[in-house]
């Protein structure tokens, strides 16, 4: 199955999320604080808040697609197994690399205080995705029955969503090392702990698995319409319910199952909309796809440009220091997006047309980066 062709709309959804992601980080880093208090910003903030759920959902969806016809090969622990594990390992590596206090081994030993170390341990979206993909992968190797595996996916989704309100009250650092404890909740500052965020990954995996079965039974159109109806229903119920629950001081929105249902409803509608768009327009190349295919590179690189690259001893974030208005932030977002699209197109072209050269460049960058980290 050529998932890139047959699930083109999934790539478009990821590409849309990449574009919004760049806007999120630019506006968060550069926009003046008083502008964020204006009424329109709450709408933008909700749209921005859909980036992480969409990314995590797509990761689960894509995992099922990529492993559907390769289970026997994966269980032989050969090249495909090593490639899959390498991809998961790379996600973890990039996730922690984005949080490393200093790009210097010496400076990390000399200047990293407990606060910076805790920040390094915090679980962001990539670590969350990596943990979920690892769990999906290991259980797929162990569970041979498709029916039992599907049941596990649904059960895991419910566990991460329904268990979140209880797990968020526990300080796991009392029982586990801090780097592990950070995976469970926000107590130590994690942005995307596995409770409840892996609910989106497992919901993506479940949606993918059930969609494939619907396609085999020639019921794909019916399934997608049901997905749309479910999305509309989730939104109709969740939005007023969240608005009412937020009037209570005890309500914690992120750990609430209503938070999950609200955003899952939006994802279902987006998925249906992009599929409808693809059916009417046809499958064509676009910069959405270029961004989507190189999502990991774009994620890492744009954060380095905003927070890591130094000019006269300062990074761009500290130089701007939240002094931009909407027009300046929009211009900065556009400039950064153009750069990211160009990088994605160039790197994607190298990998496609000169795969061996691409592998050598990748290896050289990793080895060169490690050497620089060691000697700086």
General description of the model:
Helices cover 75% and strands 1% of the residues. The protein has 376 residues and is an all-alpha fold. Strands 1-2 form a two-stranded antiparallel ribbon. β1 and β2 form a beta hairpin. α19 (326-353) packs across α20 (355-375). Mean pLDDT is 90; it is low at 1-5.
State the gist of this model.
By secondary structure, the protein is mainly alpha-helical. It contains 20 helices and 2 strands.
Key features?
single chain, 376 residues, mainly alpha, two-stranded antiparallel sheet, 20 helices, 2 strands, 75% helix
Give the SSE map.
Elements: H1 3-6, H2 8-30, H3 39-48, H4 51-67, H5 71-74, H6 79-97, H7 105-111, H8 114-121, H9 125-142, H10 146-162, H11 164-167, H12 178-181, H13 194-216, H14 220-245, H15 257-281, H16 287-293, H17 295-307, E1 310-311, E2 314-315, H18 316-320, H19 326-353, H20 355-375
Antiparallel strand pairs: 1-2
Helix pairs in contact: 2-4, 2-15, 2-16, 2-17, 2-19, 4-9, 4-13, 6-9, 9-13, 10-13, 13-14, 14-15, 16-19, 17-19, 19-20
Q: Tell me the fraction of residues in β-strands, as a range.
A: under 5%
Number of strands: 2
Helix content: over 70%
| Count of helical stretches | 20
The H-and-E topology, N to C, reads as HHHHHHHHHHHHHHHHHEEHHH
CA-atom Rg in angstroms: 21 Å
What topology, given as strand order, has the largest sheet? 1-2
> How many strands, which pairing sense, and closed or not: the largest β-sheet?
2 strands, antiparallel
Question: What would you call the structural class?
Answer: mainly alpha
Q: Low-confidence stretches at least 5 residues in length (pLDDT < 50)?
A: 1-5
Average pLDDT: 90
Global outline: globular
Distance between the termini: 46 Å
